[in-house]
Amino acid sequence: MILVTGATGFLGSEVALQLVQQGKNIRCTKRSSSIIPEILKPLGDGIEWVEADLMDIFALENALNGGITQVYNCAAWVSLKQADKKEMINTNVTGTANLVNLCLLQNIRLVHVSSVAAIGLAKPGDLITEIHHLDRDTETDGYAISKLESEMEVWRGIAEELDAVIVNPSIILGANAGTAGSGQLFETVRKGLKFYTLGSSGFVDVQDVAKCMIALMNTTITGERYIINAENRTYKQITAEIANGFGITPPATLAKPWMMTLAWRAARIIGVLTGKAPSLDKVSAQAASMTRDYDNSKIKKATGIKFKPLSNTIKEVCERLTVSA
């Protein structure tokens, strides 16, 4: 029996879907307020749903009972709100620690989802690899800190003989994201984004992330971390391709760093006045002008995966959003 945490989320639901399609017996956790994703509703009895929050160790222990031998941990709290920073870090780290401790006790294999946000920068001109590590002393992004410290809990478990692998996906794209998460980028472009930035990053299709996770679970590999990244693109390239997918004019004006500084400060003020999460925060604004290109050779060697062309994913997302508009 396999357990998937965070199965109501974008990545977790894709992992659950692929496992069921492979004929696996799976159990998925959800919160009482969570809604089952549309892609999982047709599966019906193919998934056993249990209510469990990673912060509730008793509910989590109950979810792991009954012959669970593998766990895909896709659960995490993501927030740009400065007010959520401390609680988000505590929730993500404590929840991971609870899961690690239970997996240790019950001899369960774990694939833990981290993020490239928990990986540091390479020297200029070099690709970022799994050996790079975020500097906790200088990092200010709450989400990045929460993913780094959650990873540390998994490494602590590995030191205590936990059978586990960590994956660090780059920016995950896919039609089922809608306008949330990475889907916000598509929605922003569709609404007439005029500016592009100098930065770059890695991107990957959600289906490929799930495939890599399942492939790693079914190996004997343990105590390793893997960047999962299909292609590196500049933000100018990615926004232009999205605009072309919608049949609109691509962003043509360079947003210089000082302009991004004004933008995130304005977004913060608007967020304070409206009580909503800012559309842009300081970390995101700074990252938009940074070059962050990732090496995917380690995951390709371990799994033999051939990544889906990013252009195909962008086309699929644009088509879905156009139909749902």
Structure description:
- It is a single chain.
- With 325 residues, the protein is α/β, with parallel strands linked by helices.
- The protein has a domain at 2-178 and 202-231 and 293-309: 3-Layer(aba) Sandwich (Rossmann fold).
- It contains 11 helices and 12 strands.
- The strands form 3 sheets. Strands 3-2-1-4-5-6-10 form a 7-stranded parallel sheet, sandwiched between helices.
- Helix 2 packs parallel to helix 3 (85-106) and helix 7 packs across helix 11 (310-324).
- The N and C termini lie far apart (39 Å).
- The mean pLDDT is 87.
- This is Nucleoside-diphosphate sugar epimerase.
- Pfam families: Epimerase (PF01370).
- One of its GO terms (cellular component) is cytoplasm.
- One of its GO terms (molecular function) is aldehyde dehydrogenase (NAD+) activity.
- Residues 2-226 form the NAD-dependent epimerase/dehydratase domain.
Computed CA radius of gyration, to the nearest angstrom: 19 Å
Uncertain residue segments:
none
Q: According to CATH, what is the class of the domain at 2-178 and 202-231 and 293-309?
A: Alpha Beta
Mean pLDDT: 87
Classify the helix fraction into a percent range: 40-55%
In CATH, the homologous superfamily of the domain at 2-178 and 202-231 and 293-309 goes by the name NAD(P)-binding Rossmann-like Domain
Order of helices and strands: EHEEHEHEHEEHEEHEEHEHHHH
- How many strand elements? 12
Q: So what's the overall shape?
A: globular
Task: Supply the number of helical segments.
Answer: 11
